[in-house]
Specification:
mainly alpha
């Protein structure tokens, strides 16, 4: 059985993986338009 610390590390790793996947999707052309809209708001 995993200790609480190991479980947290596992969760953090999967979160990082999800984030990486999301970032990869955002780097596609569509991201620039979203980014432009966001910067216009600020």
């Amino acid at each position: 059985m995993l200790g609480p610390q190991q479980q947290t590390n596992k969760d953090a790793k999967s979160l990082l993986f999800q984030l990486k996947k999301l970032t990869n999707q955002l780097t596609k052309p569509g991201f620039t338009t979203i980014f432009r809209k966001v910067t216009e708001i600020h």
